[in-house]
Amino acid sequence: GAMRSRAEVDATLQTAKLNPAELLPAVHCLSFGPQAGAGECCLLQLEPGLCAELEAGRSLVIRGEKDEQAVLCSKDKTYDMKIADTSNMLLFIPGLKTPDELDTDQPSCNIIHSQIAGFSNNYWELRRCRPKLKKMRKFLMEDPYKGPDSQKDQTSTFSRYTTEDLLSLIQASEEEILHHLQVIDACKIEGYWRILDFDYEMKLLNHVTQLIDSESWSLSKVPLRTCLEELGSLEPTEMIEHILLSYGRKYIDDAGEVYFEMCEDKICRATAEMLLQNAVKFNLSEFQEVWQQSVPEGMTTRLDQLKGLALVDKSSRPETIFLLKVEDLPEDNQERFNSLFSIREKWTEVDIAPYIQDLCAEKQTVCALLTKYARSSMQNGVKVYNSRRPIS
After folding, report:
1. Chosen domain end from 234, 262, 290
2. How many domains does the chain have?
3. Which end of the chain is more exposed for a tag (fewer CB within 10 A), N or C?
4. Among 283, 287, 290, which Cα is nearest to 318's?
5. pLDDT by residue (tens digit) across 345-359?
6. Phi, psi of 170 (to 5 degrees)
7. Structure confidence by residue, pLDDT tens digits, 150-196
8. What share of residues in the chain are helix, strand, coil (percent, to 5)?
9. Which GO terms describe its biological process (predicted)?
């Protein structure tokens, strides 16, 4: 449109019954630029921390495969992206001066002509979310590492994954991915992340615990160098070191020697998994006896070492125990609860907690999750939870 004059502006103000004395003297006349279209620009609402990341020259990455809801990741956090619609149209005007940037001493007839470069009726809103890490284990379990002698390993046709591959496939930030690789005890073999085949892992652990036993070492002071010298002829030294890192805490003594303090709970837990993996259900008292006999001398087995790994059925006579691994359950909240309620109709909070703990968002409690996805009732004076919906 044509440029407006001051007289036209004043006439418009009069029509609108506005008193010019109450307004700033400067007037913005807006017109749409030639290429101002909707959908050309996207607005992203950032919290101050993320804004600082960008201003410091770091990048934010949007991750996800075609069938997934997109997430945005910084170096160490993951955010869900949701479109928020606005009732007011948002206009993009390059070089726009806000009222406090205007020079107040300018003559009163000041008219500023601004062109609108684009507009939008919505923006992307970010919400901190749990990293979606479930797929990582699934990918790495396609082709577990069975050791250097395994013929299958040379001829395997499965894809293998580098750090870059995981960064492009997993909806999580780089730090969350690298941390999770440690949690699942993955190790890098020839540049690819691998998970050890469970039987091979047990074989390695066995070598180490037998050596500890034969040398009568303290479980809190296992020397790396001697382990590598003694076991190096049986297995690659990097595998021996990996198993020590997986089942122990590394430290250096005053003389600069590297030692490991073996983690009792983790070794007991792995031993239990080995015993339970071949049975559908196991008589609880028999299991506890065999389990205690199977762990290294000086270690004590306790049922609370099996949280999120095995479940005791107190209703059967005699009581039984069976394998139920939290990592085998769905990642989505509702699907997780559906699957738990199909395994067992009523749960106590103590029993279900290890199976939903990982679903808790920041500052969310197990109780809050249960309130949302389950209904509670009293059974013999104990509070139990069951499904809010019929389970097919």
Report:
1. 262
2. 4
3. C
4. 283
5. 999 999 999 999 988
6. -100, 135
7. 777 667 777 899 999 999 999 999 999 999 999 999 999 999 999 99
8. 40, 25, 35
9. DNA replication; maintenance of mitotic sister chromatid cohesion
